[in-house]
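Propose amino acids for all 117 sites.
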């Protein structure tokens, strides 16, 4: 029974609100604004990733269609090479977009003005 009392007392001290207050007291400032910025950035990143996945699926379907209509091995190799090249370009572009979105959270002067300077 003594263990339950100790556990419940510890749980009461470690609520999210109490932890945020402890961070503020430690000099980390208001965590609420930061949390809102993080949630907004996560939402933007989620939408970006969903759009990217949809675009990649479209590319996959196009490639499968081309593969089914290949007349010889040389044509098949060309289709595969184009697919790989396009995928690499798209993944590289998407990585850049996600890096830009994630750095917006940590760049205070870019918040709300839409500039990427």
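Proposal:
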């Amino acid at each position: 029974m003594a263990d339950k009392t100790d556990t419940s007392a510890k749980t009461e001290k470690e609520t999210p609100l109490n932890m945020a207050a402890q961070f503020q007291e430690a000099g980390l400032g208001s965590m609420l604004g930061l949390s809102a910025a993080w949630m907004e950035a996560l939402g933007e990143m989620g939408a970006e990733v969903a759009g990217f996945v949809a675009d990649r699926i479209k590319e996959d379907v196009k490639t499968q269609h081309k593969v089914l209509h290949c007349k010889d091995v040389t044509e098949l190799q060309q289709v595969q090479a184009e697919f790989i090249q396009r995928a690499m370009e798209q993944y590289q572009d998407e990585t850049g977009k996600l890096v830009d979105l994630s750095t917006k959270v940590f760049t205070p002067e870019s918040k709300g003005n839409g500039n990427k300077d």
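The two ends are 60 Å apart (CA to CA). Residues 2-110 form one domain.
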